[in-house]
Amino acid sequence: MGEPAQRPATYADLRKVPAHVIAELIEGVLHTQPRPNAAHAQATSTLGEELGPPFKRGKGGPGGWIILDEPELHFGADVLVPDLAGWRRETMPELPDVAHFELRPDWTCEAISPITGRHDRVRKMPLYAKAGVHNVWILDPAAKTLEVYRLDGETYRLVSTHGGDDLVRAEPFAAVELELGALWMR
Q1: Single pTM value for the model
Q2: For residue 136, which of 27, 144, 149, 162 is within the disulfide window of CB 3.0 to 4.6 Å?
C-alpha cells in the first residue's frame, strides 16, 4: 500500500508558521527558512537605505518608486517574500493599506545565503518571470557580489555582475551610482 497523497499546502498553513520564520508557498508546497543572518540583513537594509532617498523621495535622484522590505507577494496560489521589492509609481501610484500585494513589483532583490541561494534562483526567479517582474537583483553578501537580471521574454537574462567595492549604476536604478562596499560593511 502506498503513502497517502499529501494535500497541497494552503495560505492557512502558511499563517500557522511562527513569526520568526519566513514562509512561502510555491506550487502547493510550504517552504520555510530562518530569518536572515547579520550579513544578509546588513546588505539588504543598507541597499534599502541607499535607494530610498533618490528613488522613493527624489532626493538626489528621480524619485518615482515605492520600495519595501520583505513584502508578501501573492501570485495566484504562490506566496513569495523577497528581501526587497519596488514598484514604479506608474505601476502602483500609492501604497495600498493591505497585508499582502497581488500587484507584481517592477523589481525584486534577493540576498542569498548557502541555505537560500538555490531556492531563490530555481524556485522563485521563474515565478517572478511568470508574474512579469522586470528586474531581479541577486545579492550575495558572502561573495560580496551583485547580479542584475532583466526579464527577456519568459526568462531572465544576466545584464551585469558587480563585486567588492565597485561603484555601480544598475538597472532599474542606474540614475544613481551605488557604492557596493557599503553593503558589506560590518
Answers
A1: 0.93
A2: 149
